[in-house]
Amino acid sequence: MNSPPSDPSIVALAPANRPWFRELNRYHWFVLAVCTLGWTFDCLDQQLFNLARQPAVTDLLRVAPGNPQVDKYGGYATSILLIGWAVGGVFFGILGDRWGRARTMVWTILAYSLFTGLSGLAQSYWQFVLCRFMTGLGVGGQFAVGVALVAETMPDRARPYALGLLQAVASMGNVAAALIALAFSGLEQNGVVASSWRWIFAVGALPAMLAVVVMLRLKEPAAWQRATSSAEGRRAAGSLSELFGNPFWRRRAIVGLLLASSGVVGLWGIGFFSIDLNRTIFRNRAEQRERDAGEAGQDRSLVCWLLESSQNFDTLCEPIRPQEFLGLEPCDDDPRVLLATATKLHQLGTPISHAAVLAQVEQPSAETAKRLAAYLNEDPPAEFSYDAHAERIAARTKRINGEANWWGGITSMLFNIGAFFGIYSFSLVTARIGRRPTFALAFLCAMISTACVFLFMKTTTDVLWMVPIMGFFQLSLFGGYAIYFPELFPTRLRSTGTSFCYNIARLASAGGPVVLGLLTAEVFSRANGFDEPMRYAGLAMCSVFLLGLLVLPFAPETKGQPLPE
After folding, report:
1. In this structure, are 377 and 445 located in the same domain?
2. pLDDT above 80 for 365
3. What backbone phi and psi angles, to 5 degrees, belong to 304?
4. Domains held by the chain: number
């Protein structure tokens, strides 16, 4: 295997019109391939979480699909992942400068792979959240060491294209995650597996095998070896005091952090929640189809029968959960309220009847009491069969969950197909017009496309064209981060500085999903008259992209300049 060229003059002699990839030797391609795979699998594990978050939180909280608490606690879980991401990113970023890029990469891959797999074994919400925090530690460290290694190995002219390609191909990890989710959703829909989210997380443990290849074959870049060859260089490597004590590097770190925060909040606090928005849209559509087929009426007959046959109540508790019942109208919680109340009476040993249940409903308004009484004002038909309808509810639940999760996977796949082209387009555009103008276009288009998705996306056709456009512009920013951040810092601080910009942005943006969840559950809630809370919450948060535009005048232009040493 050839070693990377260490003489800068070799690069200088390359013709200006020569394709960038013709300047790479076999070792260059090997480094690019390994780092790309490491980041691709990292993105795979990130996206598996986004796809499995809603069903996992629903299952672990034991609430109904569509319950506002799912969005609220899903936001908390995402924020905790981002906090772990920030902590791990800073820790492994410093380690990458001090200990070496390749050796640090081994530990980041093992961390994000193994804890993703363990997430599928969680038996409570807090176990799940702990696994997500530990996953975040590894996820955060991978980006900085990977892009630093590629940036220091590639010839100068090829560097932005190689980094853009790394980030673009990594989006295919998100597409692979969507295909995995689609496959398991189909299996769940057909009754082959239950709780498909657990199987989805199990697949995320497989990338741990890449750590063996990194450990055996990948070498530290020559630039890093030179920078740390002396005792003084080793002391300066990964030094936070130098990064923030020197006004020149400190200014660059703060600018990079603010640029990253805008894009990271936009992606993790808004963009990835379009998957949950689409799940809600298509779940509502599937439930309405079942209502049109008369399933809600059958549910009402079953509720009426159960509340007059309390000796059969244990039969309900085992195979059917109250959240699986349909109301007669969308967002109608009548059967769930009645069954939850009946369950309390049953646990207390109190006889269950229509009147007893209505009397125990907690502080009903006059309208609620009237609605609940009307719901129960029907006797079950003589031919009604509990067993037959219980089986229909179980089958119906699988169909609805499978359909909602399938469309979640489709949304993710389309989003990341758009992302692939957006990320690599950034590297082509920035090579012509510079870093700052390209970032300005990307921030502006990301804001407009995201607002349009949350405001107007309603049909299957809308999903097919609007989601890829949003993915194109939102993820193009991340192609810019991969190119720009390594160009801001010297070799001894490159991994630390890149990690600070990219991962402290995760910490700063951890509030994004929480704010989105609170807006969904509290501000734009159904109780306040909003039929689809997620839409208005996402629209309100699109203003975060303005932060990136405001910071750009303070960002240095690095187009055509060598890496600082």
Report:
1. no
2. no
3. -60, -40
4. 2
